[in-house]
Fold Aminotransferase class V-fold PLP-dependent enzyme.
Amino acid sequence: MAYFDAASAAPLHPVARQALLAALDEGWADPARLYREGRRARLLLDAAREAAAECVGCRADELVFTPSGTRAVHSGVAGALAGRRRVGRHLIVSAVEHSSVLHAAEAHEAAEGGSVTRVPVDRTGAVAPEAYAASLREDTALACLQSANHEVGTEQPVSRVAEACRAAGVPLLVDAAQSLGWGRVEGDWSLLTGSAHKWGGPSGVGLLVVRKGVRFAPQGPGDERESGRAPGFENLPAIVAAAASLRAVRAEAAAEAARLRELTERIRSRVPDLVPDVEVVGDPSRRLPGIVTFSCLYVDGETLLHELDRAGFSVSSGSSCTSSTLTPSHVLRAMGVLSEGNVRMSLPPGTPAQEVERFLEVLPGTVAAVREKLGAPAAPETVRAAGPDLVVDALGRRCPVPVIELAKVIGDVPVGGTVRVLSDDEAARLDIPAWCEMRGQEYVGEEPADRGTAYLVRRTS
Amino acid sequence: MAYFDAASAAPLHPVARQALLAALDEGWADPARLYREGRRARLLLDAAREAAAECVGCRADELVFTPSGTRAVHSGVAGALAGRRRVGRHLIVSAVEHSSVLHAAEAHEAAEGGSVTRVPVDRTGAVAPEAYAASLREDTALACLQSANHEVGTEQPVSRVAEACRAAGVPLLVDAAQSLGWGRVEGDWSLLTGSAHKWGGPSGVGLLVVRKGVRFAPQGPGDERESGRAPGFENLPAIVAAAASLRAVRAEAAAEAARLRELTERIRSRVPDLVPDVEVVGDPSRRLPGIVTFSCLYVDGETLLHELDRAGFSVSSGSSCTSSTLTPSHVLRAMGVLSEGNVRMSLPPGTPAQEVERFLEVLPGTVAAVREKLGAPAAPETVRAAGPDLVVDALGRRCPVPVIELAKVIGDVPVGGTVRVLSDDEAARLDIPAWCEMRGQEYVGEEPADRGTAYLVRRTS
């Protein structure tokens, strides 16, 4: 079995397990109590806070532990927005933030006076610092930017965006969930969030850092725990394990990053050679060491995941068929890249090179089998004589069928002729233009149809 | 060492520890994922939910896991209030709810249109079902009542209050944090909350039950986890341990309840014999098996806790000097009982009888030593001739000094004469009337003074 989904949840680091076990015996009592079990718990909590703060690069009294990374984001965004309510109600996020940030933004937008700007990204998934800076307004209360993307691994220009925010007097909240195990977030940020189970710590622990001097007003009912910023009994054994494991993974980070980067580099370069019609997405160099993502034309993501699982590989996917809403991942959409047959591999530290090699051996046959089952065009589309224009009715068919049908008939129209694909599948909106880009055909545009949408493609070669 | 503060946090049950360890290996992956680690995690989560629901007495799809009991309460109250926003914005709580419920009520009161009725309790800490029912209004959106009190152990008349709520069409939320380990909550309640570390499960797990048919609108940013009612990655190992330990403590509950009840009964009856000037509080029979609470006149709670801790006993206290706000516990205040020298003993399951005996041996000397240090009146106050009225200036002195000063001079005024105690200590408001009740003196009332408050006591015997 090879587990390649560390970006969802990393297996527990041995140090985390050890610390958790020790703290179960020493740290179950209430750290707010005066008796010895309580004082011992308080000592453990203080030590964990010091250790975590040292790893983050902040003061201990700027850091609180929350029950999850999601909670840290929700509380952080809400508290920072409320703290600057007088300035205004404008929030900036990038279009490719983690869903927890986007959900917080949606909640803010639904509240009175709340407005949100979503800064677009380029095809690699990165925001342009200038575009981000241009979205800062007089009434901007808060800006959010992830340190690195959780689906494609692309690093964001946090330092430069932080500079622009600082110049405008706007606090920047950095969601560092994916990068915190690898190192501190550079730059002059104001708030930061993280999630222990992403770095090999236990689940049940997030962290929220609010720099001294940042206006912050915790929202919702509170209590006296964690500086009033995270109500509820502290999950102390997990907090102790989270801090200990963060220190441990940091000690191994430099060596492990180099090793994983080599492995993902190999995947990035080999997959397009081994599998036809693949798009590797994300920034080739400014990226996290362990994440690599690619999409396979004419492949249904859910079937591919199942086949890879049967072959012993655990990966995730941003394809629409793997989501409960049947829409492609918002990250892939924002990047404008192919979403069908999408595979995200995120290698946990310690991944052996031979597991990656075995994956590279298995992948081509697996993709080919899925394509065959779907009746995908096996060879490049051949030229066939036909009328100048064609209509493909793919209504009611799900990704990747509309693209497969398009690919099957593009050769039936002459160069200059068009194919009109009727589809009511959300993925088609992303994948038909992406297919055109990959195939060098012209994507003319979309228009409403009687049912669904018509996507117009002109054959150019 | 004897740990007598299970009502704050119970030591981890061996079954919880075992289940946690097993789940660390099997349940770290994301239960929303399709690969085998994810499916395994999903199976564990489903099984834990079934087991917990069986213990609660609800359907599995009515129960979600939250990161703490506090979170369960905050989310439950907010969601239920929002679900019935059209009916009105009136909330009912008892005056002796856990702080998480009271904090949620305060937040609601601060929001637009929110109003709260706090139903008073009698001297045992229980609400009267009739008084509770009388507070139900046309615009009542939600009513909250704990199953049993966390500070004095008194059980609330939940079934009868639930009946009244049902008749009025108002959902009742029961905070069952203290009682869930002992058994199901009887009666026709609508929502229920619990906290695993109160029954010997790990910290980091609460549960929120919303009966089918109850209108519920989760508040704040959400995600697709836990039916949209508890956002953030599930803390699966802790959830598994919580469910397993709830089942385990339930299996032992009947026998253990009988045993603990005998021990707390012994404390209730022996302490007033062994220590002069003690008030045992809470209902003598309708109470949780393991909790017993008493207050000692002329004693400073913090010093008493420290001395007991040095003697090897971990207990908690509702005295003002042990709280960060220097106010007596809201529960003792609502009951109108003495708060100085307050000791709450909450025995964890398995407490050996000899630890209780040792406590009974140690307590009298410890209390006597604290009283001596404070210069408390050692014998009943003797009659001394003096003028008809006296003023005691206890401004700037903290609990229990104002009461000690009062006791020292009451013998200096003739029967029918008065003592006027000047105090700026919050505890005096509760403890001077309580002292009068215990001593058979007449408490006349309070009035504002130049500084602080004047408490008037008439000598009647």
